[in-house]
């Protein structure tokens, strides 16, 4: 019989995964609709932070609350938290590296300020 | 409904939504403008979400093997960003 704490962890985790899926779909649609490269960087941030870090933390909570997974649930929860931390740090750093390179080399015609 | 079927049902509904998002991302790769920076942005977003998807799969399939894959995938995406940025700026990858 699952304890109350397990249910709380699982439901909290599911809310975060649901938020992540919503951000994922929004970011995917924004990749189509935003016309400028520099605006699409915002869509990438929505997709990487909202669409990956948030559901990873949600998956960690779900795994921690899932007694039926046995002892390996801590392995999954730990791995999910590590992946979320790495993604949180590296998504921003990588995106900035790309944006700086594109701006310096004029690899795209539009200007950062053009909101068209 | 017990906890196991509750989690399994929820994650089973999450899978098609993730696949829909992946399909939209892949569709973006074939639309103009298809410049290298644009493609890198789409590959980044797609891969970060794939990493989250792998962790969710590990819970659904009760297998821990996809966890190291998610960590490695995230690290590779960062490497892709740095390599492309380095190539754009100095035309070499070393």
Topology readout:
The complex is a heterodimer of chains A (116) and B (94).
Chain A: H1 4-33, H2 37-65, H3 73-105
Chain B: H1 3-29, H2 36-60, H3 66-90
Structure description:
The complex is a heterodimer of chains A (116) and B (94). By secondary structure, chain A is mainly alpha-helical. Chain A is 79% helix and 0% strand. In chain A, helix 1 (4-33) runs antiparallel to helix 2 and helix 2 packs antiparallel against helix 3. The longest helix of chain A has 33 residues, at 73-105. Chain A is elongated. The mean pLDDT of chain A is 90. Chain B has helices at residues 3-29, 36-60, 66-90. Chain B has one domain (3-90). In chain B, 82% of the residues lie in helices and 0% in strands. The termini of chain B are far apart. Chain B has 94 residues and is mostly helical. Chain B is built from 3 helices and no strands. At the A-B interface, helix 1, helix 2 and helix 3 of A face helix 1, helix 2 and helix 3 of B.
What string gives the helices and strands of chain A in order?
HHH
Give a short account of the largest sheet of chain B.
none
User: Which bin fits the share of residues in helices of chain A?
Assistant: over 70%
Mean pLDDT of chain A: 90
Total of domains of chain B: 1
**Alpha-carbon distance between the two ends of chain B:** 56 Å
How large is the count of helical segments of chain A? 3
What series of H and E elements makes up the topology of chain B? HHH
Whole-number total of structural domains of chain A? 1
Q: Separation of termini of chain A? A: 56 Å
């Amino acid at each position: 019989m699952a304890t109350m704490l397990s249910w709380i962890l699982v439901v909290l985790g599911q809310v975060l995964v649901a938020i992540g899926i919503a951000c994922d779909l929004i970011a995917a649609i924004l990749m189509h609709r935003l016309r400028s490269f520099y605006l699409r960087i915002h869509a990438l941030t929505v997709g990487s932070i909202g669409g990956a870090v948030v559901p990873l933390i949600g998956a960690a909570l779900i795994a921690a609350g899932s007694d039926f997974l046995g002892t390996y649930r801590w392995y999954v929860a730990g791995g999910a938290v590590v992946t979320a931390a790495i993604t949180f740090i590296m998504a921003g750093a990588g995106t900035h590296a790309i944006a700086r390179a594109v701006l310096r080399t004029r690899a795209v015609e539009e200007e950062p300020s053009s909101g068209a | 409904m017990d906890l196991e079927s509750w989690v399994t049902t929820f994650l089973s509904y999450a899978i098609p939504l993730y696949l829909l998002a992946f399909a939209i991302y892949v569709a973006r790769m074939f639309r103009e403008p298809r410049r290298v920076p644009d493609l890198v942005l789409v590959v980044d977003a797609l891969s970060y979400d794939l990493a989250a998807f792998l962790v969710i799969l590990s819970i659904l399939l009760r297998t821990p093997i996809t966890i190291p894959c998610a960590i490695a995938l995230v690290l590779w995406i960062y490497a892709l960003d740095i390599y492309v940025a380095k190539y754009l700026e100095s035309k070499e990858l070393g």
